Amino acid sequence: LKQVFNKDKTFRPKRKFEPGTQRFELHKRAQASLNSGVDLKAAVQLPSGEDQNDWVAVHVVDFFNRINLIYGTICEFCTERTCPVMSGGPKYEYRWQDDLRYKKPTALPAPQYMNLLMDWIEVQINNEDIFPTSVGKCKEEVI
């Protein structure tokens, strides 16, 4: 269990919304609707009078947090030895390319691929140009 919560490995702390902000209120509304057994289509519909970019940003961050927790629980079972390829079954292999360290699509063991992916997503979420923390400031072309 200690390995799962090692920040340098795979677990990352949840992104939080500042209490009292509009995004915090949207987050609470999203959590309540997802935990109440409501129809998922209705749960993700834009609430009346809310900004679509803010609503999408809240759901992206929540999705990242949930995936991060799920991955944290299984990462000890998927090692470079047991999962030498990042694949989607026998027909699909995922290769990493970031144009920085990996200039061309590169086959990587699944844990290494997932760590790079989660780091990349976290950078995107923390990028103020993509996900500004000020409500109503998301760029239109992102959505």
Automatic annotation (TrEMBL):
<feature type="binding site">
    <location>
        <position position="78"/>
    </location>
    <ligand>
        <name>Zn(2+)</name>
    </ligand>
</feature>
<dbReference type="GO" id="GO:0016301">
    <property type="term" value="F:kinase activity"/>
</dbReference>
<keyword id="KW-0479">Metal-binding</keyword>
<dbReference type="InterPro" id="IPR036703">
    <property type="entry name" value="MOB_kinase_act_sf"/>
</dbReference>
<dbReference type="InterPro" id="IPR005301">
    <property type="entry name" value="MOB_kinase_act_fam"/>
</dbReference>
<keyword id="KW-0418">Kinase</keyword>
<keyword id="KW-0808">Transferase</keyword>
<keyword id="KW-0862">Zinc</keyword>
<protein>
    <submittedName>
        <fullName>MOB3B kinase</fullName>
    </submittedName>
</protein>
<dbReference type="Pfam" id="PF03637">
    <property type="entry name" value="Mob1_phocein"/>
</dbReference>
<feature type="binding site">
    <location>
        <position position="83"/>
    </location>
    <ligand>
        <name>Zn(2+)</name>
    </ligand>
</feature>
